[in-house]
Amino acid sequence: MTEQGEPNAAQRIAVEVAYARPDVQVVLPVEVAAGATVQDALQQSGIAERFPEIDLGSAKVGIFGKLARMDTALRARDRVELYRPLIADPKEVRRQRAAQGKPTRKGGASSADSSA
Description:
- By secondary structure, this protein is α+β, with helices and mostly antiparallel strands.
- It has a domain at 9-83: Ubiquitin-like (UB roll), CATH 3.10.20.
- Helices cover 19% and strands 26% of the residues.
- It has helices at 38-45, 47-50, 90-99; strands at residues 12-20, 25-33, 60-63, 66-68, 79-83.
- It has a five-stranded mixed beta sheet, covered by helices on one side.
- Pfam families: Ub-RnfH.
């Protein structure tokens, strides 16, 4: 802390909070205190106010694609991700595509994307 009681830069870390919908994707830079948790970063980012459909009490979260708990401590440059619920069962989608004779897509790319 500085003499004025403010945390110095060494006691703060930069992280990102990411959220995506089909129509919009956001990555918000957030500076949190060292030792802050996923929940701290989400609250400081204001993401729940920006996207009212997010329920921080039940939302699945992760850090760089790995599920995490709200009380997980963050490290500098972590990306906290909020996950939306699946709208379709992946197994059922594959079954339907197979029944229609369509090839299975990898990584969400359409067959038009792969013919570069």
